[in-house]
TrEMBL record:
<comment type="similarity">
    <text>Belongs to the 'GDXG' lipolytic enzyme family.</text>
</comment>
<dbReference type="GO" id="GO:0004806">
    <property type="term" value="F:triacylglycerol lipase activity"/>
</dbReference>
<dbReference type="InterPro" id="IPR013094">
    <property type="entry name" value="AB_hydrolase_3"/>
</dbReference>
<dbReference type="InterPro" id="IPR029058">
    <property type="entry name" value="AB_hydrolase_fold"/>
</dbReference>
<dbReference type="InterPro" id="IPR050300">
    <property type="entry name" value="GDXG_lipolytic_enzyme"/>
</dbReference>
<keyword id="KW-0378">Hydrolase</keyword>
<feature type="domain" description="Alpha/beta hydrolase fold-3">
    <location>
        <begin position="88"/>
        <end position="289"/>
    </location>
</feature>
<protein>
    <submittedName>
        <fullName>Alpha/beta hydrolase</fullName>
    </submittedName>
</protein>
<dbReference type="Pfam" id="PF07859">
    <property type="entry name" value="Abhydrolase_3"/>
</dbReference>
Amino acid sequence: MFVPQAPSVQARIAHAGARLFVSPLEHVIPSGPLGVRITRRVIAGFMALVSERAAGVEVQPVDVQTRAHGRIKGEWALPEGSAGDGVVLYIHGSGYNLCSVGTHRALVTQIAKRSGLTVFSTEYRLAPEHPFPAAPDDVARAYDWLLAQGWSPDQVVIAGDSAGGHMTLGLGVELLRDGRELPAGLVMLSPLADPSCDLMEQREQLVRDPLISADGVRRLFAHYLRDTDPKHPRLTHVLVEGEVLPPTLIQAGGAEFLAADAHHIHDMLAAVGTDVTLEVWPGQLHVFQAQPRIVPEAHRALDRATTFMTGALARRRAERSSAEVTA
């Protein structure tokens, strides 16, 4: 496991600021749909403050109604000089309730710029308006639509953060069990693994997340789960022997309770033989990669993540070329 250096001064300040100014909001913002709407505005403002849109990346909105895949919404992020030999399907985080391609636009442009790859950032329906399984259904349709645009699975990396990381894992598992060709790689940033929040609660006894409590997340997830058991197979994604996923990179912050989920996913994937790398960055907050304006570690983590993406695609190209030569 890659272990980065101790947190920077900026990261320590960000941690203290989150504890003092963000965490108390959990006890001020009301629960229920009104609270979700308020939190959406708060998160959008926070992301605008800490994120940084990359120069030289064109963003093109997508909103199309298709016969085969239904309505597809999202954004292309097109970096200058893209070779066009690979694409990233990006699934933004949200707690299944909160964010959008707009809140994550800057992060997606950073990925496109640093990797040189085209990125499709997909939108999906949110709770409480649209509970489970609306979100993973939308993401699966977006993946199939992406392939219909001419990309082959070995030209695709699936990536996502938080709930988007959860759906990245889920989509990979569903493709595997459907017997379909798998993408070149998976990247998960601060991924959720356990919607019951039991893993978060256990880690909370050791590390207090400065952004929100496990109980606060559980209340948020209730809008998404409704009457669905959080141990539903499409929510837990338990792999068994022989179910090997593509090469996978997982990054998490050491100050967040989802580090426990990241460890859980890593251990499960490693046990079945997946080539998986886990990076837990000391002192970092949830999805710190989206905060390049305030923490220098965001830049280093993004560089490592995008290097992994291009490397995974290069390996699949080499494997394909070798297979064609020997055929």
